[in-house]
Write a structure and sequence with these properties.
alpha/beta; 4-stranded mixed β-sheet; 4 helices
Length: 195
């Protein structure tokens, strides 16, 4: 058995999931703006208890490392690094935008970067079409208009749009086989973007 813990706290939501041999066993995802640090450890403990496993049973951790909220990005990354310090765990670092994608479509993945800007990345499956970056919201809306066959993903109410909502834990599992585990998890740093 190969257990994988899946963590995301990069934006306004919190996601915790557990998979075994690439199959999602359980996950929880909900709005937890500015309270992810209070809820993430209890959610991990609850999933461990419900599935009758312990931290020592975990072989892999997938965590988002940004872009996103300055504090939020650090929460799941700190938990992953702490577990990797005390246990022989492989850590996989994922884009917080890429986990918002829909596997069935070319996806414009968006997150509010505040001050009239968005974090944007475009993906086709695990292929990067447009690398993660910051873009002014008027340019984002123009990009969407110029690419009508692309699907908008993420919580984009701030743009006056409806976006597809992904199962973040499941997308993390889909992405993991396409990347390598970090050679030195303790050296991982959050991805912060400035324009």
């Amino acid at each position: 058995m190969s257990y994988t813990l899946l963590l995301d706290s990069s934006n306004t939501s919190l996601t915790v999931g557990l998979a075994n041999d690439g199959k999602l066993l359980d996950s929880v995802s909900y709005e937890a703006w500015q309270s992810q640090s209070e809820h993430m450890i209890p959610e991990i403990e609850k999933i461990f208890k419900d599935l009758k496993i312990e931290a020592k049973d975990i072989n892999n951790i997938a965590t988002t490392i940004g872009p996103g909220s300055y504090t939020g990005v650090r929460i799941s990354l700190t938990i992953a690094k702490t577990l990797a310090t005390v246990l022989p765990i492989k850590v996989y670092a994922l884009s917080a935008l890429q986990v918002l994608k829909s596997n069935d479509h070319v996806s414009i993945c968006l997150m509010n970067a505040r001050s009239g800007r968005s974090y944007i990345g475009v993906y086709k499956g695990n292929e990067v079409i447009l690398p993660d970056q910051i873009m002014e919201n008027d340019k984002v809306l123009e990009f969407i208009k110029n690419n009508p066959s692309y699907k908008v993903c993420g919580d984009v109410k701030y743009l006056g749009l409806d976006g597809l909502k992904s199962n973040v834990a499941l997308e993390m599992l889909n992405i993991m086989p396409s990347i390598k585990a970090c050679e030195n998890p303790l050296a991982l740093t959050p991805v912060y973007m400035r324009s």
